[in-house]
Amino acid sequence: METKGSSINQEAVITPQQLFEHWQAHRGLTRKVIAIFPEDELFNFSIGGMRPFADMVKELLAIAEPGLKEIATGKKEELNENLMVNTKLQLLEMWDKTSETLPGLWEKLSTDAFQKSILAFGQYEGTIISTILYFIDNEIHHRGQSYVYLRALGITPPPFWER
Amino acid sequence: METKGSSINQEAVITPQQLFEHWQAHRGLTRKVIAIFPEDELFNFSIGGMRPFADMVKELLAIAEPGLKEIATGKKEELNENLMVNTKLQLLEMWDKTSETLPGLWEKLSTDAFQKSILAFGQYEGTIISTILYFIDNEIHHRGQSYVYLRALGITPPPFWER
After folding, report:
1. Residues A111-155: pLDDT tens digits?
2. Which residues does the record give as a divalent metal cation binding sites (chains A, B) (predicted)?
3. Which site among A13, A60, A141 would you substitute to test the B interface, given the most B Cβ atoms closer than 10 Å to its Cβ?
4. How many other C-beta atoms lie within 10 A of the C-beta of residue A126?
5. Complex ipTM, two decimals?
6. Domains of chain A in sequence order
């Protein structure tokens, strides 16, 4: 990655490295939310017919690594949210495995890759930058929902700004 | 703004214009959520002791225009969430007024402004890019919470990807 180890390009709105760190900081906060959730409620608690938070986390896991792999390698990936995960520990282990894999995939992205077009998961049209922003925004959206679940359960979520 | 009306800089992770459009698309979705909320519930419905969505919207209004004004002009702004707004119509009117004001403020930002440091509202340290991303992320976060409120009220929120 061009910016790595070098000084920041002062002309850039955001550098690849900054965008990656931004995403990883959000993933760190989401991990805290998974960890604070009581296991039973993580897999079963719901409001208004919405999915339990574990199912939203499975979606985030189904997107992050396969999605970035597709972006980095150009090889088509399937969107498979039906992960065989039944415990909080397994969910956290998958989360951490993803965190270990993402940096190596991100390294493959050159600075001029972000404006290129992509059909993510064979169905979502966009540019690489719009796709990555979608991944991040979608995580913030569902984690915001998990904050309501936690409050409804009488649990204080981690501060949103603490990443 | 340098990118306006010109071809896209293929080397940019994201251009100022793209970032602004991204934010405005999110603001458009949030407007749809405000509009779909029943007025009484907008100001009074709550889960787990959280604020009604109208109060979260007041926070977003207190941030967007004053925050961008401070970024664009360098003149200190106060964070004042105690807006005298008691109806959905007033809230939507304030939202639309902000939407009209933001483009002229954004125009003042040159491409090399984003990496500069700022103390937003006299208290939040960061760069201009980290501050703007915080504004956007904070809106997604609270709007995600409003989706749970709507579902709990038996109302289908607008699709997250429809912006």
Report:
1. 899 999 999 999 999 999 999 999 999 999 999 999 999 999 999
2. 142
3. A13
4. 14
5. 0.94
6. 16-99+113-152 (1.20.120.450)
